[in-house]
Structure formats: C-alpha cells, structure tokens
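Researcher: Quick test of sequence recovery. Tokens follow.
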C-alpha cells in the first residue's frame, strides 16, 4: 500500500488535518511491560508462522509495538466518515497502526495494532485501548469467522503493562484500567470513509489514485480502472455488504455503530466496538449507549443502514463516474435483493427449502410473537429443529427454554403460539426432508453458541483479577458454534437476570 499510494509528507506525529495523502508514517508507542495473553493458532498458520514463532520474544515485541519489523515503516490511514448520519470530516486511524503487509499462500494480509499509541488522527484521544474492549474485539473477531460471517480477524491479545484512563459510560467517572493491544488482520482495512474524505475535499486526483489502487489489488477481475470498472466496483461492494449484513441478521449480531468509517470496502465486519448479541429477539435493540435515544443502529435497521452507507459511497465515487443512473440502479438492486436475501435466510433458519407464498406471513407472525413474549433468539431457533412436524401439539416443551418468562405463555398468547406452530407444521409437510435431515440442515445455520454479552463480561471480570483462563475457554468453545459440544451446555443458556441491566451486558459505549 505504501508503495502505491501518496504518503503524508509531514513526518512529525502531531494531530492535524492530513491533505492529499492516504496515510501517515507513525511508530507505535513502546508499552511499559507487555505480556502476551492469547494467540489465534489459525491466524498464526495463515500468516506462515509457527507455534515456536508465536511464543518467541520477537513475536511479543513486534505485536505489542516494542519492536519494528526490519525493512518496514508502520503507518496510520487517513479517512473520513458519516457518524450517526452526519458528516464528521477527517477521522482516520486514531488508535490503529498498520505494521506491514505480508503474502502467504497467495493471500495478502495487512497487520494492524489497535491500542498502540497516538497518531496524527487521534484528535483529543490517547490512541490506546483497554483490556475490556480488547477482549471483546479479540474473541468476537474469531467467533464471527467460525460462524461464517465475513470479518476481520485477530492474531493476538496482549497486555501493554500500562494503565489507561477511561470514562466507561461517559458519565464523568473516569478510572484507570489495564491497557491492552490487539493485533488485527485483514486483506485490507480500507473503509467507505477512505474514499469519502477525498471526494468531500474535492481531491479528485487522490480519490482516483485510491480507487485505482483498490481495483488493481482487491478487485482485479474488474479489469483496468475505468468508468465501467468504477461502477462495477460499487456493485461488488454492495453485493459483499449485503451478504455481510444478512449474516449479521441470521446470527443475531448487532454492530452498534455502523458509521461509514466502520464499513469495510471488502464487505468484512470491522471495528468491534459497542456490539452486542440479541438475547431477547427485538428488532428495536441496540447495544450502544450513544444510540440509545434514536436507535439508528438497532438490529432491525441494519440492512437499511448498510444501504444508506452505500449511498454515501456512491456519492464519493460519483466524481469519477459522472453519471448518476448506473449508481442509482445498483442501490435499487440492493433493496430488491435485500428482500429476497432476508426471506431466503429466514427460510433456512426455519428449515424450509421450497418456496411458498405463505412464508412471508409465517415469518412476520413469528417475529411479532418472539418480540411479544421476550424470546431468546439463539435458543429458539436451535431448539426449533427438534420439533417433529407430526407432533406440533407438543411445541411448548420444545422451545420452552427460549422464553425468559415461560409462565407468561398462557391464555391468548399460548393460543397464538399454538396457531403459529400448527401453520408451521402444515408448511413443513410440504417439504421433502424428514425430521432428522431437516434438523441437520437447520443446525448448520442456527448456532448453538454465540458470544453473548454476559459471557464476554465474565471473561473481562476474570481478566481484571489477573485470571485469563476464561478467554481460552470461550475461544475454544466459539470455534465450533454449530456443534453440540457435550459438557459445554452451560453456555447454551439465556442471559442471567443479573446481566439484564449490567454495564457491558445490556448496554455498551464506544469507550475503548
């Protein structure tokens, strides 16, 4: 990247507006007393490293910022973005520093430290990260991958040995926390905002340079850069983004802050900040305290927010294309394909392989019932696979554990649930698969284990006390989210009542 894109000519690491440049060279801050907590064996192998490498002193020092790899020059990327619907101007890597790019097995990987110190884009922040948010990012990056969700990856999690001052809930009560550093890995960390910043500034030259670079290195099958290639570039990004957000909806993941600077140009889930997993099925839920009032990034709105962000990317690319019609067509196609993709996803969760006109109503009624009765999404769909279509009268024992207050499932509500299960059984009777095979297929798309908010918080609480075993336990558990994993059933359970309103379990902030 640094060989093909314009660099910030100013070498001094001071906060400033960076013009006509895609990145700034900057060195990580040396941590006080770094200590490696965990590494991902998969990513160790993907990068061509060995177990011996990951346990070496050099590994620790490189991936905590203590040592710079030979013949490399770390850098922070420049980008802008729309935050909560408003243009925020220059943002950039305020606490992320790219170490290098490597190639292994015909794959290119960018290595990035999160929490390694300030950069020209840090604004009023210190560029550091705390253990709390770093555990959440590390675990979730790898968990999402094994769920089949497009995502950036995580290589390592380490303590910096420094104390970092943070106001967790932005309520005027700052406190010192353990500092930490996560090594993030992705083919590229380019975002929608990487293009927006140059378009907003009227810097068509740098915009073209960046888009051409992106096509050559990440969308080379589109051919040489041209107006046609630019249009097809947007179309491919739209397709990838739609695939990503449909996976979010499938597993109940809520990103929490889908600003345009948090949208990967490769359709990867990026920037794990105030994310959360649906406990009770609720289209209106967001985990982000900053978004509590307007709920812009609530679960049910995520696909439309991705479309809104694609509209901003289309605006950013317009100066290179100078035609609105092909861009508008792509955005319209996204909306049309979204409806079909969501329906197909929900059919798969219900074990329906054949298309039927009644499915839309069946799904809509189910979603209303699940929200009305406070129903755990993960448990409901996983246990629904155990229903025998010829014995729908016994529906309640099958899904009882999914209800937070099963005693409320009575009278009129119970009758409505019975009616739904009767209709569902009739719909299943049209399918060719038997109960056993249907269960196998449903269990491929309905995970048994996800990184519930309280699970991550338990790992954080233990880590704060100096115990890190739960990080490993959850890491291993979440590598096989669709398997039964006998002996691990304690993690296949509803959110405990103590976690309903606990900070870190019900609501989170962008503080990291």
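Model:
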């Amino acid at each position: 990247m640094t060989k093909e894109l314009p660099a910030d000519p100013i070498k001094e690491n001071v906060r400033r507006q960076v013009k006509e440049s895609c990145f700034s060279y900057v060195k990580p801050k040396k941590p006080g007393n770094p200590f490696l907590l965990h590494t991902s064996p998969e990513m160790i192998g993907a990068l061509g490293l060995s177990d011996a490498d990951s346990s070496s002193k050099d590994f620790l020092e490189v991936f905590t910022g203590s040592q710079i790899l030979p013949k490399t020059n770390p850098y922070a990327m420049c980008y802008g973005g729309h935050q909560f619907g408003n243009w925020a101007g220059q943002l950039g890597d305020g606490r992320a520093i790219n170490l290098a790019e490597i190639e292994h097995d015909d794959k290119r990987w960018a290595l990035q430290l999160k929490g390694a110190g300030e950069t020209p884009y840090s604004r009023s922040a210190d560029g550091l990260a705390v253990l709390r948010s770093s555990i959440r990012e590390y675990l979730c990056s790898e968990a999402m991958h094994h769920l089949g969700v497009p995502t950036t990856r995580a290589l390592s999690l380490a303590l910096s040995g420094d104390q970092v001052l943070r106001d967790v809930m932005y309520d005027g009560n700052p406190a010192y926390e353990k500092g930490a550093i996560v090594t993030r890995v992705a083919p590229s960390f380019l975002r929608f905002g990487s293009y927006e910043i140059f378009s907003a500034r009227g810097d068509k030259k740098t915009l073209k340079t960046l888009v051409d670079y992106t096509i050559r290195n990440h969308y080379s099958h589109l051919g040489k850069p041209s107006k046609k290639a630019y249009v097809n570039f947007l179309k491919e990004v739209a397709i990838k983004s739609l695939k990503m957000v449909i996976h979010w909806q499938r597993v109940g993941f809520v990103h929490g802050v889908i600003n345009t600077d948090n949208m990967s140009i490769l359709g990867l889930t990026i920037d794990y900040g105030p994310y959360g997993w649906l406990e009770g099925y609720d289209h209106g839920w967001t985990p982000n305290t900053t978004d509590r009032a307007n709920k812009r990034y609530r679960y049910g709105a995520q696909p439309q927010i991705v479309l809104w962000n694609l509209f901003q990317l289309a605006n950013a690319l317009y100066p290179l294309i100078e035609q609105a019609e092909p861009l508008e067509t792509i955005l319209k196609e996204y909306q049309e394909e979204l409806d079909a993709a969501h329906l197909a996803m929900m059919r798969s969760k219900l074990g329906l392989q054949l298309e039927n006109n009644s499915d839309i109503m069946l799904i809509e009624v189910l979603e209303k019932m699940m929200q009305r009765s406070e129903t755990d999404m993960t448990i409901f769909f996983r246990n629904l696979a155990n229903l025998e279509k010829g014995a729908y009268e016994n529906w309640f024992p099958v899904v009882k554990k999914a209800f937070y207050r099963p005693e409320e499932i009575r009278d009129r509500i119970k009758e409505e649930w019975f009616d739904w299960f009767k209709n569902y059984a009739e719909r299943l009777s049209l399918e060719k698969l038997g109960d056993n095979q249907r269960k196998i297929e449903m269990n491929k798309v309905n995970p048994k284990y996800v990184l519930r908010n309280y699970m991550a918080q338990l790992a954080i609480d233990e880590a704060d006390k100096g115990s890190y075993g739960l990080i490993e336990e959850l890491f291993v558990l979440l590598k096989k989210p669709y398997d039964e994993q006998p002996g691990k059933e304690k993690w296949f359970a509803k959110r405990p009542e103590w976690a309903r309103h606990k900070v870190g379990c019900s609501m989170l902030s962008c503080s990291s």
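Residues 65 and 462 are 25 Å apart (CA to CA).
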